[in-house]
Design goal:
Length: 471
């Protein structure tokens, strides 16, 4: 009997003991009395733009032993929410992971984001119980369940408005999960039979899962580079436990794993070569009047030389919709960053024109921030991402002026955003800590005499991406 089978057997005993206190009929009645029309919040959270983070509240594990002797589980969950987690996983298995239903109940009272009950579901009783204690999702592990159990348990969860995250470790289990009707599949990079870990397990199995099924990578994820590799292989979300549990500053550690880097103002072949070495997530090409301006032809040549894993962004200021739509349709750029006074009608026209050319317009809308009034209702803007920047002085170009704004003005935003304006090696970590952005956008701090400087690019990227958490 391997450790997974041992835990499953012990869990069956636990379920039988619990039913001596509250019968299946009673637990089912309690669960069915609760609202089942939930809209499946876990799935909605995991469908957000970019890679989503499920962060784990975990005291111990069989492979690592005691992880957190001091275990302020409410505080841990609150830190995760503050750091930008999409959801939280709470261990409730008591014997091998030192978890508890009481932890989940308390976390439910602490945070507003969805919660996964992380346990070894071996009986439908546990699904009803998960609903009663406040979970939004349950874990179904292929390795300990039959095909019939997978299907039945998924249907029970559906009837209660709970998401089933169906966990697989190999190709056969992935196909079983799909057959069971899984809408979310989690691939465990740790083989629970022997505890070996390989995050490339997720990369290998991603191709086996249809794009309309949410794909999560679980276990062994430690660095920003791990996240980058998974995101570039179309992974929708990651489940991270020990890496964050051992961090001295959980908020900062999560932000450092989440952060994306956009380097703007590439205009020379050397700039592209530097970008290929530094590997930002996004590269910006300025089409608006500026000292960094490029033509369509120049941009097309530069993009040809750019690592295709780096997303391309065109920066525009109140320019003709047709010009932008044609660049998007031709594949010169993937995103249009609108840096001027473009309004809702303009964005609608751009989306329609791009659609007529057979493409979808992905939009980053810049908002200039000088006061709280500038931030009102900005999450309602029709765009994939916002970009928050400082106001330019009269006569200056629309961006890239190296000026900051008051970061404390930024409160919780529903839409992911890039932070720009006056960011440097010295202040970027403070900016990340204060604002929890989706990404950092910078240009002038990586230049010497108006030209990109490889050493400055490397230094800034390193300041943004602290690859290892602070253990």
């Amino acid at each position: 009997m391997n450790i997974l089978e041992e835990i499953a057997a012990k869990t069956r005993v636990r379920v039988a003991e619990n039913q001596q206190k509250i019968t299946l009929a009673q637990m089912k009645e309690q669960a069915q009395a609760l609202n089942a029309d939930t809209g499946f919040p876990m799935e909605q959270a995991l469908k957000a733009e970019g890679i989503s983070f499920i962060c784990e509240v975990k005291k111990a594990s069989p492979s690592k032993g005691l992880i957190a002797e001091d275990f302020p589980y409410r505080e841990i969950a609150a830190d995760y929410e503050e750091g930008g987690a999409a959801a939280i996983s709470v261990l409730t298995e008591p014997y091998y992971f030192q978890g508890s239903n009481e932890y989940l109940k308390a976390v439910r009272q602490t945070v507003s984001i969805p919660i996964l009950r992380k346990d070894f579901t071996v009986d439908e009783y546990m699904i009803y119980e998960a609903k009663v204690i406040g979970a939004d999702a349950v874990l179904l592990i292929c390795a300990i369940l039959s095909d019939e159990e997978l299907l039945h348990f998924r249907e029970v969860a559906d009837s209660l408005g709970l998401t089933s995250i169906v966990e697989a470790h190999d190709e056969e289990e992935v196909h079983r999960a799909i057959k069971a009707g899984a809408r979310v599949i989690g691939v465990n990079n740790r083989d629970l039979r022997n505890f070996t870990v390989d995050i490339h397990n997720s990369v290998r199995l991603r191709a086996q899962v249809p794009k309309d099924i949410i794909f999560i990578s679980e276990s062994g994820i430690k660095t920003a580079q791990d996240i980058k590799e998974l995101e570039r292989n179309a992974v929708d979300g990651v489940l991270i436990g020990e890496t964050l549990m051992r961090a001295k500053d959980r908020v900062q550690a999560l932000q450092q794993l989440k952060i994306h880097l956009k380097i703007c103002g590439l205009r020379r072949p050397e700039d592209v070569a530097y970008a290929n070495e530094v590997q930002p997530d996004f590269a910006g090409f300025v089409f608006a009047p500026s000292k960094r301006q490029v033509t369509r032809e120049e941009a097309a040549e530069l993009v040809e030389q750019l690592d295709p894993r780096i997303h391309t962004v065109g920066v525009f200021v109140d320019q003709p919709v047709d010009f932008i739509a044609e660049l998007l349709a031709a594949g010169v750029i993937e995103y249009a960053q609108l840096h001027g006074s473009e309004d809702a009608a303009y964005i609608e026209a751009l989306r329609k024109r791009t659609a007529l050319l057979g493409k979808t317009a992905k939009i980053i809308k810049t908002v200039k921030v000088g006061s709280t009034a500038d931030l009102e209702n900005i999450s309602e803007i029709d765009c994939e991402y916002l970009l928050l920047d400082a106001w330019s002085k009269e006569g200056e170009a629309a961006g890239g002026n190296g000026r900051t704004f008051e970061w404390s003005l930024i409160k919780a935003l529903e839409k992911p955003f890039f932070l720009a304006g006056g960011l440097t090696v010295d202040n970027v970590q403070q900016a990340v800590r204060m604002t929890s952005p989706y990404g950092i956008d910078a240009s002038s701090c990586m230049e010497t005499e108006d030209c990109k400087d490889l050493n400055k690019m490397k230094a800034f990227a390193q300041a943004v991406r602290v690859n290892e958490t602070n253990n």
